[in-house]
Every structure is written in C-alpha cells, then in structure tokens.
Amino acid sequence: MFYIAAAIAVSSSILAVTRKNASHALLYLVLTLLALATIFFLLGAPFAAALEIVIYAGAIVVLFLFVVMMLNLGRASVARESQWLRPGMWVLPAIMSGVLFGVFGLSFLGTENAAQIEGVMVPPKQVGESLFTTYLLGVELAGVLLLGALVGAYHLGRRYLDERREE
Predict the structure, then answer these.
(1) What angle do CA 115, 42, 46 make, to 5 degrees?
(2) Please, which residues have CB within 8 angstroms of residue 63's CB and are 6 or more apart in sequence?
(3) Over the stretch 98-123, which tens digit does the pLDDT of each residue have?
(4) What is the C-alpha separation between 45 and 47, in angstroms, rounded?
(5) pLDDT tens-digit series, residues 137-152
(6) Which of 29, 61, 46 is nearest to 146 (CA)?
(7) Fewest CB atoms less than 10 Å from the CB: which of 2, 17, 47, 50?
(8) pTM of the model
C-alpha cells in the first residue's frame, strides 16, 4: 500500500506542476496531499495524516482555489503558461530531483552506516499546547503571511482585470 500511495503522490505531483489550467493543477495537488496523508498513516503517524488532510488539503488548497477563482485568468493565462513550460525549463529541476532520489536510494543501501534517529512519541495535546504557547508567534506570522498573500493576489488580479476591461 505504501508503494501505491507513493506512486500516486509522485505522479499527481508531476501532473500538478505540468497542468496549464490552475484549477486542474489544484485538483492534482489535493490528490498529492491525500496520498501523502495515506503515507503518514501507513508509517504510523495518524495525527500527521489528519493534519495533512485538514490543514493542507482542506484550508490551504481552498485558499488557493479561492484566489484562482477570484482572479479568473482565462485563456490568456493558459497561453502564457504554455510559453513558460518549454522543455528546456525542466532540465535543472530534473537534475536536482535525480540527485535527491539518488541520495534517498543510497540512504537505504547504507543503513548500517547511517545515523539512527531516536524518536519520542508526542501526543497531539502536547503538539497543540506547544503550537499555541511556545510557538504562538510563528503560528500567527504564518496566518498573517497567508492573509498578505491573499490581499496581494487580489490587488494583482484586480489590476489585471482592470487592464483587460480597458482593452
């Protein structure tokens, strides 16, 4: 099951990056996030899986979808995306991904030499308490950052729509 979820995560990630329509790319992003949640669950981290679904596949993607719908970019943006997605643009990311996969593969081959990570089980209550006490400033800054991104997208989209109306 792990390998099936991993294959779905990798293929839907590739599809999310290569889609020219932003709504289709967001649907593949949701599929990627759900596959990652499945992987977390299979690895024995059900709390991380639930957070993956609720926070990322739920709240963040809904925010992205709201911005895409608000901007209503249309066919001009699809044509612009086609120009940006030239085959030469994939060379450097492909090399970097290959290096990462190589490192990941080598980590499985050399497990006796690799440093072992000693983990401690942390209950969800302790995660919540530390998020809203010790790391409260970071949580609030992340919220302000998302709000700023939403306001910026609105103003950029409004300018684009105003220019389109003048034409």
Answers:
(1) 95
(2) 146, 150
(3) 786 777 667 667 655 445 556 677 78
(4) 6
(5) 888 888 888 788 778 7
(6) 61
(7) 2
(8) 0.59
